[in-house]
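Question: I have long wanted to understand how a fold can be written as tokens. Here is the record:
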Amino acid sequence: MSDASLTVLFEHPLNEKMRTWLRIEFLLQQLHSQRTLSETASALTFFRTVADLLDVLERGEVRTELLKELERQQQKLLQWAEVPGVDMSRVNQLRSQLKARASSLMSAPRMGQALREDRLISLVRQRLSIPGGCCSFDLPTLHIWMHVAQYERDDDVAAWLETLEPLHQALSMVLELVRQAGAFRNQISLNGFFQDNAEGADLLRLKIDLDYQLYPQISGHKTRYAIRFLPLDSENGMVPERLNFELACC
């Protein structure tokens, strides 16, 4: 996504936990942007995103990992509280929010369970893997649902998204704190290559000037990473010998 200074922000996870969190965040953002279902095409896009989210949630211990991270962030705030001159009101506010997110997440039903058990979502999900399998004769339930009043569909979508709020709020706060933990610094790659250590980091964030029309190909893990910059135009694009970019290791 571009900002006002015409740079493009790229993010890359350095472990599987962060990879899963970024994918969930990406899918939740899509669901919230797709929530007005006025046509079958937009509805199928929404249901495909729901299906993708349920697949991701079924693969790992998302709740457990998030609860651990919420606790870890609380411990970090306790350390900040010992720093002279720190804004204690802000520290206490964040600690209170972290505790509230953890409590809500802990008491919530199994992640995505309400969506798995919803009859309409289940019917559509079963047909999504079949090419053209969501025609009106395949899914008459969806067909009639698309003809009810818009406010009724809006209410259904709002109810579905509400079941994801404990996850959404906890994840949003965790990722916000992780991103804020690393400051952007100016870096230079030589001949399109850059590498460095990433001890204890979870996430890399890069800002590249849009004019270069380059993207990073990143390989790495929690201790070390390497970045190779590649042109969008693979045939005619050029990579500067010395490329200035911004990097945050979070």
Notes: The chain has two domains: 7-11+183-249, 34-181. DSSP finds nine helices and seven strands in the chain.
